[in-house]
Amino acid sequence: MTEAKLLIAPGCPHCASMMSLLGDLLKEGKIGRLLMVNIAEQPDEAAKHNVRSVPWLKLGEMEFSGAHSRAELENAIEMSVSDDGQQRFLFEQLKNGRLDDVTEFVERDKSKLHDLVALLKGKEVPMTVRIGVSAILEGFQKDSSALNSILPDLLELSEFTDETVRADACHFLSLEGSDVAKERLQQCVKDESSMVREVAEESFET
Prior knowledge:
It is a single chain. The chain is α+β, with helices and mostly antiparallel strands. Helix content is 56%, strand content 10%. It contains twelve helices and four strands, in the order E-H-E-H-E-E-H-H-H-H-H-H-H-H-H-H. Strands 2-1-3-4 form a four-stranded mixed beta sheet. It is elongated and about 60 Å long. It starts with a strand and ends with a helix.
């Protein structure tokens, strides 16, 4: 069952409502354990999670900042125990413009890059999600080991049916920069899509 950690602070206008909602969910058995931490008394907890504002909530492996409704919390709890919950969480966060939160989340756990890239495989991916994924991966350009860890995912995307996804994949492969990535980009220069060919060609000019 999902465990929750809530960071609060004196004077926080939304902390009380989050405490009440999570307390109710705990009593109803929808979460298994709830830890509340006053960061004014335990500042190390805020530093540990790189928390800049409260309320801040960790549900399972997912992290949320700000106030949330009961419906949003129940949805988050359901995601935390589902097989595709991690991807759904990242999707919803990026869709709702929480790029900074997702960036910090992925930087702390780079294994989540796999889930991030997988978002592009969905149908009708919102522009905010595509831009968010691109922005985060661009931020890892100097971290060769991080991007190399998702090279198989990027190669798979470069053969996706949607030309937009293939074009995005070419851009990401150029960031990864390995010999394998460059070899695939040379193949993409001959892609049937002019969009894909253009992105692949540009990767050799930068």
